[in-house]
Amino acid sequence: FLCFCLFPRFDGSCSHLVTCRPVLVETMGFEDGLYPSWEFLECGGDVPERRSGHTCALHQNRFLYIFGGFDGSNCFDDLYILDLESRLWRKIEAGGECPSGRASHSAVTDELVGVMYIFGGSGSHFGYTNKRDLWEFSFEVESWRLLSNPIEDTPSARYGQSMVAYQEGLYVWGGT
């Protein structure tokens, strides 16, 4: 699920959002071994609104989960799933308390546990409403759970960071 902007702003916003159409790239091969080639997928269902700064996480090598993002004015707190086999989008009405709207956060899946983690990000006023909360989304029951409030032993509030799951831990790099 990609939306390209050749001239993004530093804060992650894009003045070209109104002309940008979300697409999923099925393959990136090399024609003649020299240049990448792209193939666009036509997808149906409840397609997410245009956005930047969202996260995209893959589950079971079949389902793409899109959370959050920014439309130039507001941050989203919604969650969508794309079934790569049926090519249908669905908005998830998750149970439990949900993360607040955010962009430039990080997301990672843990396939052994069957969850996705969301950390940090920024609200609609980039750099002034940074977050440091950690959320867990259960794929099986489609429910959110807050794992940590801002406490002393969590990383500082930030956006634009990277995060990976390794063994039994989450590792966060960088951010502002």
Notes on the protein architecture:
The protein has about 180 residues and is mainly beta. The chain has one domain (about 40-175): 6 Propeller (Neuraminidase). Helices cover about 0% and strands about 40% of the residues. The protein is built from no helices and 13 strands. It has strands at about 25-30, 35-40, 45, 55-60, 65, 80-85, 90, 105-110, 115-120, 135-140, 145-150, 160-165, 170-175. A 5-stranded mixed β-sheet has the order 3-7-6-5-4, with no helix packed on it. A 4-stranded antiparallel β-sheet has the order 8-9-10-11, with no helix packed on it. Strand 12 (about 160-165) and strand 13 form a beta hairpin. It is globular, with a radius of gyration of 16 Å. The two termini are about 25 Å apart.
Q: Can you tag this structure with a few keywords?
A:
disordered N terminus; Neuraminidase; Kelch-typ_b-propeller; 176 residues; mainly beta
CATH superfamily: Kelch-type beta propeller
CATH topology descriptor = Neuraminidase
Report, as a whole number of angstroms, the end-to-end distance: 25 Å
Largest sheet: 5 strands, mixed
Do you know the CATH architecture? 6 Propeller
Mean pLDDT score, rounded? 83
Question: What is the H-and-E element order?
Answer: EEEEEEEEEEEEE
Q: How many separate helices?
A: 0
Beta-strand content bin: 35-45%
Total number of distinct structural domains: 1
**Regarding CATH, which class?**
Mainly Beta
Q: Classify the secondary structure makeup into a structural class.
A: mainly beta
Helix content estimate: under 10%
InterPro entries: Kelch-typ_b-propeller
Keywords: Kelch repeat, Repeat
Pfam families: Kelch_KLHDC2_KLHL20_DRC7 (PF24681)
